[in-house]
Amino acid sequence: MENDDRGRRRPQTPLLDELEKGPWPSFVREIKSASQTSESAQDLLGQLELSYQERKGHWKHGGLVGVLGYGGGVIGRYSDVGDRFPKVAHFHTLRVNHPAGWFYTSAALRTICDIWERHGSGLTNMHGSTGDLILLGTTTPELEPTFQELAQAGFDLGGSGSSLRTPSCCVGMARCEWACYDAMKLCYDLTMAYQDEMHRPPFPYKFKIKCAACPNDCVASIARADLSVIGTWRDDIQVEDAEVTACAAAGLNIQKQVCDLCPTKCMEWDGAKLTIDNRNCVRCMHCINVMPKALRPGKDRGAVIMIGGKAPIMQGALLSSVLIPFVPAAELMETLQELIRRIWDFWDEYGNNRERVGELVQRVGLPAFLDGIGLEPVPEMVSSPRDNPYIFFQTQKGAQP
Amino acid sequence: MSTAPQRITDIGPPHYNKYLHPLILKNYGQWKFHENIAPGVYCHVAESGDRIYTVRAGSPRLLSVQTLRTFADLADKYCGGYLRFTSRNNVEFLLDDRAQIEPLKRELNALGFPVGGTNNAISNIVHTQGWIHCHSSATDASGLVKCVMDAVCEHFTHEDLPAKVRIAVACCLNMCGAVHCSDIAILGVHRLPPKIQKDLIRRVCEVPTLIASCPTGAIRPATADGKPSVTIVEEQCMYCGNCYTVCPAMPMNDPDNDGLSIWVGGKVSNARTAPRFSKLAVPFLPNHPPRWPEVVEAVLKIVEVYAKDARKYERVGEWIDRIGWPRFFKLTGFEFTRYHIDDFKHAGLTYARSAHVRY
After folding, report:
1. C-alpha–C-alpha distance, residues A277 and A346, integer Å
2. Minimal Cα distance from A98: which residue of B?
3. Residue B226's pLDDT is what?
4. Which strand (E) or helix (H) includes residue B142?
5. What is the pLDDT of residues B90-129, one digit of tens each?
C-alpha cells in the first residue's frame, strides 16, 4: 500500500496497471476513477489485483439479501478475503430494469449516477448480459435506501433467481426500418404485465423473454431467451427497382453477393431487373441487409414465436424452436399473454427444480408440450419430420379393436 | 409530525418515450432506410425526410459514474442530451446535425473511446463478470476483453473484414455471456471435479438438491462421520460447476487447471444460414493474466486467416462450411485432438456420416 495524493492508502496494482495500456478503453481506469470517491471501489481494485496474482476469484456465494417484499433484483456477493478488503466484504449488485431499447437522457444518467455515488461503489455495467442496468457493489444496509431512491426517480429493479428475468428488446421502430413489430412497446408492456413474476420468483428456474423486431435478431433472442419473439412478414419483399439498378451501377455484384447467397435461391437478376419468388423466401434478411435502400420487408408484418433457447446449464445449450410461425403485429400482446399463461402453467406442473422450459420440452417431447399448452402441431415446427419409427401411438380410448 | 415517504414498488422501468430524441419520437416506426456514412456512423432516413445520425463508440461495459457523467456531458453538448447503449455494450450518441459528427468523434477519440463497431467490423465483446463479481468464474472476463480488443481494435475502427465478427467471453460454462452462438467465443473452463468441503456441506447445503443438480448423476449420497454428505464419481464430472452454484461446499477454482477454450463459427442472425452454435477450436489454453498472450494469439490467428480466406458476407461459420473443418485446422495451425470429438449426449450428430472429404 502507498498513500494517494489525498493521503489515503492506495493498493499497489502492478498487474492491473498492465491493463491500462493499449487502445481499447480500460476497465481498470474505470475502477481507479471510481476509487477517487469510493472506498469500496478501492478495495475492489485491491482484491482484483490479488485475483490476478493468484489466478482465482475471491467471491463467495450470494446469501439471501434483497429489498423488502422482493425476492429478486439483488445479487448477494461476499468476499472471502473480507478481512483484507473490508469495504468489499459485502459487495451486492442491484439489477435495475433498463428502459426499453437502452435509451437514456443525460439527466436520467446523472440521476442514476448521483444515487449510486451516495449508496454504492460508483461502478456500473452498461449493461448486464440480460439487459439490466447493473449497479455493482454495495452493502446490505444500503440496499433498501438505494432501491427507494431509484423508485422515487422512476426506476425499479429487474429479475434474478427463478423469476421472469428482465425482458429486453432491440432498438426496433425507434431507429430501424426493418422493425416488423413494435419491439420496445411489446417489451415494455410485457414487463409491466408481469411485475409480480419478475419481483417474486415463482418458477422452477429463470424465464427470459427477448423481443427482436426482425430476423437479424440483434438481441440474440433465439440463443438467449426461453421465449423468443422474432419479427417477420408474410407478404412480398418491397422492391424499389430504380434503387436496385443504382446498387448495381454503384458496383454491387447482385448475382454473386445477393442471389447466390440467398438460402432458397428464390431471386433472379437478369442484369436489369431483380425478380423474387416470394413464396420460397424464408425471410432471412440477407438481400435486405445488403441493399437497404432498394429492398424492405413486406407490409404484412408480425412475429414468429419460438420456445426454449438457453445456455448450457444444466442439460446443454439450446436454440429456441418454432412454436407459432406467425402472429400479426396487432395481435402479439394478446396472443403472447395467453400463450405465456399456458406455458407457465405447464412448466409449473411438470418442470423439475432448475429445469428451463426448453429442457422440459426436450424431456417430455414437443408433442406432449403442445398437448399441454393446447397448440396444434404444424410442419413449421420441425426442420424435418422424424426419421425413426419409434412412435408412441396414442391408444384411442373407447375404440373397438 | 413528519411521515416517511410512501414506499414505492412494482412500478417497472421508466417508459422509453421519456428518453427518445424528438426526431425519433416524431418518426417512430416511420424509418425508410439507412446509410453507413463511416465506420461507427449511421444515418437513418425517415419517410418524412428527417435524418438522425448515430455515432457508436466502444466502452469497457464496466463504467464509473465519472465516465457516465462524461457521456452525459457529450450528449448535452452534441445531441440535446439523447444517447443509448447497444446490446454489445457500445454507447451511441444520437445527433440531428451532421456537422457535429466529426467534432464528437474527435472528442470521443481524445477521451479514449474508439468509434466503430458497425457492419463488417469486429464489434464490442459481450462478456460476463469474471473476477470482478462472480463466484464460479474460471478466469477474469474484463481483462480478457481488454486484451483481445486491444489486439483487434483496428478491426473495430475499420470495416475491413468479409462480414461482421462477433466475439464473446464467458468466464465459466454457465455462459452468462451466451458465448455459444458467437463467431469467436472465449470460454473459461474448469478441469478438476469440485473439492467437497464435508464440514461445510452439513451447514450450508441441502444434500438432495445437490445430488439433483448434477447433469450426469455423478454426485452420489454418502455418509461422512455419521452425517449426510456426498461423493463424486470423478469420471462422470464434466466440471460444469452447477453443484457449486447450488452448494457453496463444492468449490471448483484451481489456478493451474482452470483456463480458456476457444469456440468458433456460431451466429444468431438468420441472414443466409440458420442461427447455430459455436464449435470447439481450441480445448484449453492456460490462464495467464494480466495479458493472456496465448488467448490473444489464438483469436488473432482466427481473425487473420478468416480475413484472408473468407468471401464477402461469409461469417466465420459460413466460411468454415465452405472450406471444411480439416482446412480450418490446417490454416489456423490449431491441433485437432480427441477433445474436439463430441462424446456427450447426442454426440453422434456431429460425426461425419458421408464420404464427402476434401483432399
Report:
1. 40
2. B13
3. 87
4. helix B142-157
5. 999 999 999 999 999 999 999 999 999 999 999 999 999 9
**pLDDT for A209 beyond 70:** yes
DSSP 8-state code for residue B234: G
Task: Find which of A15, A27, A33, A289 to mutate to test the B interface (most B CBs within 10 Å of its CB).
Answer: A27
How far is the first Cα of chain A from the last one, in angstroms, to the nearest whole number?
A: 86
| pLDDT tens string B32-54 | 999 999 999 999 999 999 999 99
Number of H helices, E strands in chain B: 10, 13
Q: Give the pLDDT of residue A6.
A: 55
Rounded distance, CA A298 to CA A288, Å? 11
* Phi and psi angles of residue B37, each rounded to the nearest 5 degrees, phi first: -80, -40
Average pLDDT over residues A274-286: 97
Q: What is the pLDDT of residue B119?
A: 95
Distance CA(A333)–CA(A327), nearest Å, equals 10
Residue with cell 440531428: B96
* Cβ pair B136, B174 in contact under 8 A: yes
Of A18, A116, A224, the CB nearest to B65: A116
- Contact present, A79 and A91 (Cβ < 8 Å): yes
- The pTM score is 0.96
pLDDT of residue A77: 93
Calpha distance A243→A333 (Å, rounded): 36
Any idea which residue has 442472425 for its cell?
Answer: B269
User: Which chain B positions have a beta carbon within 8 Å of A289's beta carbon?
Assistant: 271
State residue A315's pLDDT score.
Answer: 86
Dihedral over Cα of A329, A330, A333, A336: its sign: negative
Is B31's CB within 8 Å of A184's CB?
no
Whether B114 sits inside 8 A of A296 (CB atoms) is no
A285 to chain B, closest Cα gap in Å: 5
Gap between the Cα atoms of A333 and A189, Å rounded: 8
